[in-house]
Amino acid sequence: xxxxxxxxxxxxxxxxxxxxxxxxxxxxxxxxxxxxxxxxxxxxxxxxxxxxxxxxxxxxxxxxxxxxxxxxxxxxxxxxxxxxxxxxxxxxxxxxxxxxxxxxxxxxxxxxxxxxxxxxxxxxxxxxxxxxxxxxxxxxxxxxxxxxxxxxxxxxxxxxxxxxxxxxxxxxxxxxxxxxxxxxxxxxxxxxxxxxxxxxxxxxxxxxxxxxxxxxxxxxxxxxxxxxxxxxxxxxxxxxxxxxxxxxxxxxxxxxxxxxxxxxxxxxxxxxxxxxxxxxxxxxxxxxxxxxxxxxxxxxxxxxx
Length: 305
Ligand SMILES: C[S@@+](CC[C@H](N)C(=O)[O-])C[C@H]1O[C@@H](n2cnc3c(N)ncnc32)[C@H](O)[C@@H]1O
Known about the structure:
305 residues, alpha/beta, Rossmann fold, 2 domains, seven-stranded mixed β-sheet, two-stranded antiparallel ribbon, 12 helices, binds S-adenosylmethionine
């Protein structure tokens, strides 16, 4: 009796996509198919276009075995970005893994705001001094440094593990001459006056943290996600440090937040800057792609440029 011929790649991937959907790893079949393709690509060293092009062929036993190992990890809800070891962010491919937050699409809205604040800053034709507080993988610091060559950028994080990922990405993008990574609490390690300060600090309130998907709680560092009882404790502490670190004449401070937090953060930042004698203040709130008031930006000194 002859054994059944091995299934074509297309059938293996279709079966994997249905498993991913059934295990609630993906929201719909399109996303599950994309994940299956990416996992197979990782296992076999092919990009997605080549994975699709080979759909009618029979894959090697070694590729199928490597693919099944990655699929098993994904079915246990390890984040896809950790399995692949990378995540696209604002056109750059960041290396990521356990110990650093996976950059999120909504943070691209913060990067947009930071790039505009740099471009419109009176010092933009010289050197704009930028800090990214809670840099994680370096997503904000390195993207800004890459897209705005007239910047010097400091990335600060309290987590040594996260900073190791930031350092890898800094070397990968060839930015070691203009980016400095520092370990420490909020803005404390910084000594130079800053023109633009960005922060995507943890902002999920403690009570909400328990309700987050297992995939986040089991894999990504709690210190990168949970922001204390109200969610904005760290942002409030950073607001108190702002006046000591922002340039006297002209600066912008830009914060990423959770839904419903923009009004509180706007009040914290404006009152900290007004009591330090900065102003007049220009307050802007930027919505993310889902329409959530995600970014609070406070500027002063721009109009007199
Ligand atoms: C939400 S993640 C953001 C990571 C990255 N900036 C991004 O946008 O993908 C928050 C980061 O803040 C860091 N962090 C938490 N508490 C901190 C503190 N007190 N001082 C500096 N960084 C802190 C965490 O380690 C984590 O890397």
